[in-house]
């Protein structure tokens, strides 16, 4: 009898509790401090959003909040400066400070940020504190219950990013926007777009139109490829900015340039000799001119490439036209990129002589600087003299990362064994590569950027980026399968202090994240390490 009545009591008790505590709502990335309160805020169409502070971005955040909820709630809340029950407040003018405080009581919700970005992240946490149904499109009839409590939060790293390789397989605007939506939910703030590679050139360059007309016309496997016009790229930049995400454009060079070399024969180190032979890379045109005095030596465009080999192409580092070409590209892209960074690639230049590579990288860094941007390059660039402030993106070689730090430059952490979203989960994954490792969800979660490379500590690290290479990714379904759920693990690695991270706890929270993804129709990988039911 006692057991039975205890059971009955528990049932009644949990009914009256009605819903989880704030700390049990599946918050990812884990906030720094979460304190549960009592009771909950009941959100209905009666609520009003009150903007406090001068920041013009507040109105945009309120709009974002309304749009995020409107499908499930069926209403949009009025927004103004009059007294309201949901207060969004910027209490500072430091746009670098992304911290926020979220307080939920039975009568009101307050989000205070040191910057608009902080308020935006507070809104993301607030959305996660709501029942997962708010992420769907089915109308919620009753009030939306939000458990009371207080959250104080700020990110561990300033740069929390992901990369999409739109070169190997082109991904259309809608897919990139969809990705930006999901990044925003995870408080990621940089999207790196890998806009050129051997298989395709994906951004319109008005002064070099063949790059897209020819170089953008195919992709891995021989499909039709595609590219972004500058207007479309600007649309992505704006869409990202509305979500406090900065776009980092990458033009990969001097290797990974076959699409450019196929578009403009004049750039190709391959030369036609008067004896009828064709010679690539090994012989400079000057040497050939010497040898065949007075003869007509010409260059020839490369063939378009649709395979997945790497390391076979290079720009001609001795050719002045190469640097005019790069200057035009950097100028055009920099002009439509408000963010501080321009990514120059620099990886896997296996057919560029070492001296030529160093000369090239040092010269290209200056071009980027002249156009007002800071260079990021894959870790190989650290074998050159880096300009102050430039960033090396660690993916493979620890010694390169250390070279960067030795020069006083920062490192962006993308170790392939942990952060590469194109790695297979295990040997049965239907797509993906495994040259670095199999990366199950626990492996993507269980590492600390600040201790990953011996001799590189937190102050040397700009942040964390999770790249998705797309040799095996043909469409959104493929993308979702490889990205989710690992991106959530990496977002937490980038945001939450190492000391607070806990795999068992993450397993509970990722389960709720999975419900949010399910409701949004995202086909994520149901890792067997998580009990999703
Ligand atoms: C290495 S990571 C590459 C890419 C490939 C990737 C596949 C890097 C800087 N270079 O060209 O797409 O591996 O995992």
From TrEMBL:
SUPFAM superfamilies to which the protein is assigned, alphabetical: (Trans)glycosidases, beta-N-acetylhexosaminidase-like domain
Q: Does the keyword Signal apply?
A: yes
Which residues does UniProt assign to the signal peptide? 1-16
User: Which GO terms are recorded in the biological process aspect for this UniProt protein?
Assistant: carbohydrate metabolic process; glycosaminoglycan metabolic process
What reaction(s) does this enzyme catalyze? Hydrolysis of terminal non-reducing N-acetyl-D-hexosamine residues in N-acetyl-beta-D-hexosaminides
Q: What class of enzyme is it?
A: hydrolase
Q: What is its EC number?
A: 3.2.1.52
Gene3D superfamilies, per the entry:
Chitobiase/beta-hexosaminidase domain 2-like (3.30.379.10), Glycosidases (3.20.20.80)
Q: Per UniProt, what is one Pfam family of this protein?
A: Glyco_hydro_20
- Any one GO molecular function term: beta-N-acetylhexosaminidase activity
This protein's name: beta-N-acetylhexosaminidase
């Amino acid at each position: 009898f006692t057991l039975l009545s205890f059971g009955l009591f528990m049932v009644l008790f949990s009914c009256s509790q009605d819903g989880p505590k704030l700390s049990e709502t599946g918050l990812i990335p884990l906030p720094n401090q979460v304190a549960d309160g009592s009771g909950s805020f009941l959100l209905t169409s009666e609520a009003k959003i009150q903007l406090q502070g001068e920041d013009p971005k507040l109105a945009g955040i309120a709009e974002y909040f309304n749009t995020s909820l409107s499908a499930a709630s069926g209403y949009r809340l009025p927004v103004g400066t009059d007294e309201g029950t949901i207060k969004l407040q910027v209490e500072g003018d430091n746009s670098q400070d992304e911290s926020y405080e979220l307080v939920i009581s039975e009568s009101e919700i307050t989000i205070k940020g040191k910057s608009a970005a902080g308020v935006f992240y507070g809104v993301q946490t607030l959305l996660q504190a709501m029942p997962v149904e708010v992420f769907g499109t089915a109308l919620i009839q009753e009030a939306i219950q939000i458990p009371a409590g207080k959250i104080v939060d700020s990110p561990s790293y300033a740069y929390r990013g992901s990369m999409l390789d739109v070169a190997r397989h082109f991904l259309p605007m809608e897919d990139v926007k969809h990705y930006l939506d999901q990044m925003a939910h995870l408080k990621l703030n940089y999207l790196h777009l890998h806009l050129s590679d051997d298989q395709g050139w994906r951004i319109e360059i008005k002064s070099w139109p063949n790059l897209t007309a020819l170089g953008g016309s195919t992709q891995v496997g021989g499909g039709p490829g595609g590219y972004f016009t500058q207007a479309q790229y600007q649309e992505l930049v704006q869409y990202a900015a509305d979500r406090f995400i900065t776009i980092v454009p990458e033009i990969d060079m001097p290797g990974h340039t076959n699409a450019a070399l196929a578009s403009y024969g004049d750039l190709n180190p391959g030369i036609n000799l008067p004896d009828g032979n064709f010679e690539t890379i090994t012989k400079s045109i000057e040497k050939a001119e010497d040898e065949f005095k007075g003869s007509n030596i010409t260059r020839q465009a490369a063939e378009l490439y649709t395979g997945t080999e790497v390391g076979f192409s290079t720009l001609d580092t001795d050719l002045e036209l190469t640097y005019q070409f790069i200057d035009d590209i950097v100028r055009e892209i920099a002009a439509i990129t408000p963010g501080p960074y321009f990514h120059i690639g620099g990886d896997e230049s296996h057919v560029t002589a070492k001296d030529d590579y160093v000369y090239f990288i040092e010269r290209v860094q200056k071009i980027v600087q002249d156009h007002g941007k800071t260079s990021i390059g894959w870790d190989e660039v650290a074998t050159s003299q880096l300009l102050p402030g430039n960033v090396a993106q660690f993916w493979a070689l620890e010694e390169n990362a250390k070279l960067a730090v030795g020069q006083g430059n920062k490192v962006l952490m993308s170790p392939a064994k942990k952060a590469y979203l194109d790695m297979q989960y295990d040997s049965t994954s239907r797509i993906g590569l495994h040259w670095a490792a199999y990366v199950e969800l626990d492996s993507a979660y269980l590492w600390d950027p600040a201790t990953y490379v011996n001799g590189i500590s937190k102050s040397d690290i700009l942040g964390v980026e999770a790249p998705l290479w797309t040799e095996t990714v043909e469409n959104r379904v493929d993308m979702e399968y490889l990205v989710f759920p690992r991106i959530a693990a990496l977002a937490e690695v980038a945001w939450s202090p190492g000391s607070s991270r806990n795999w068992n706890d993450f397993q509970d929270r990722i389960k709720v994240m999975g419900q949010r993804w399910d409701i949004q129709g995202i086909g994520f990988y149901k890792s067997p390490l998580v009990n999703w039911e």
